[in-house]
Backbone:
């Protein structure tokens, strides 16, 4: 089947709650790319720019500490029958990973090198971040007998780079790009001269892209594209599916940040708080698009993941239309 057009990428809140854990038991498709002053989304030829709010800390609301994680564990059966061992499950709202209301990512310390604004340091930071995301999502997905493998990282340095989804031009709008098990982070697209030392925002953006890899490995991405092909990418139904996909990746990003903050690693309260506040400046109202969700919904799904760390609460495919508009 012919692949779709290439698409780059992209009062105080309550504290995070952490889950009790249970032991459950193609064609190339471009997904998303984030930018730091802009999040660019190219779906069916649409390019979306989403700006980041760089307001001063003194003007921003205080984000309280997340709650301590429940220890979890145990041998209880999953809430839904898992797919056969090592096979994707092509499903959306009824996907097995989205059924257990108590399941989520285990809390653990993610250790990252200090963020520095140069190519080599950025590569080291995102390589370590990807390893942390592997540590978070790999065991989770394997508990559901899903065929987890880490994405392959690429750090393009040329003005353009080639992916299974086509040739992508590096610009201020291309900070990360995911396509079929490959995650690209061109340093030239990060705008580090403007955003500098802001690792919490970088990490949340990267975790969103990795969230699309979680969807890919689980089979959610395949199910989304099956339906988009059937209804048309530019149809209301196709755009709704895209929004639900993007908002779920937002929720998955928040889950990762909530699972690693204040755990003795590198994800500090300051990083978490800046990432939390940053979510307000994104969405379709900023980008003048229709495929990522309103600014309020885009922020709320990330915060739901960060606050509660319950994957069933990331079931955007079962959410009312108003929550994914």
Residues:
């Amino acid at each position: 089947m012919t692949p779709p057009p290439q698409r780059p990428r992209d009062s105080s809140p309550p504290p995070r709650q952490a889950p009790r854990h249970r032991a459950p038991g193609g064609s190339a498709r471009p997904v998303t790319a984030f930018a730091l002053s802009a999040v660019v989304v190219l779906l069916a030829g649409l390019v979306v720019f989403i700006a980041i709010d760089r307001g001063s800390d003194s003007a921003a609301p205080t984000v309280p500490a997340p709650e301590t994680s429940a220890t979890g564990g145990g041998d209880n059966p999953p809430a839904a029958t898992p797919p056969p061992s090592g096979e994707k499950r092509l499903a959306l709202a009824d996907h097995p990973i989205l059924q257990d209301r108590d399941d989520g990512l285990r809390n653990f310390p993610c250790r990252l090198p200090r963020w520095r604004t140069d190519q080599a340091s950025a590569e080291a930071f995102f390589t370590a971040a990807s390893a942390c995301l592997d540590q978070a999502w790999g065991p989770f997905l394997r508990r559901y007998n899903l065929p987890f493998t880490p994405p392959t990282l690429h750090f393009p340095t040329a003005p353009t780079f080639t992916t299974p989804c086509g040739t992508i031009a590096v610009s201020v709008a291309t900070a990360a790009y995911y396509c079929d098990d490959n995650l690209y982070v061109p340093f030239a697209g990060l705008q580090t001269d403007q955003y500098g030392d802001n690792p919490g925002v970088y990490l949340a953006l990267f975790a969103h892209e990795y969230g699309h890899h979680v969807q890919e490995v689980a089979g959610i991405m395949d199910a989304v594209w099956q339906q988009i092909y059937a209804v048309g990418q530019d149809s209301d139904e196709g755009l709704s599916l895209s929004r639900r996909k993007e908002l779920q990746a937002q929720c998955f990003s928040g889950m990762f940040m909530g699972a690693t903050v204040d755990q003795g690693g590198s994800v500090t309260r300051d990083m978490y708080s800046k990432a939390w506040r940053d979510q307000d400046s994104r969405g379709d109202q900023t980008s003048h698009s229709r495929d990522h969700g309103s600014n309020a919904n885009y922020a709320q799904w990330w915060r739901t993941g960060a606050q509660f760390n319950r994957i069933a609460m990331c079931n955007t495919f079962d959410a009312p239309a108003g929550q994914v508009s």
Observations:
- Residues 119-143 form the longest helix (25 residues).
- The two ends are 29 Å apart (CA to CA).
- Residues 45 and 296 are 24 Å apart (CA to CA).
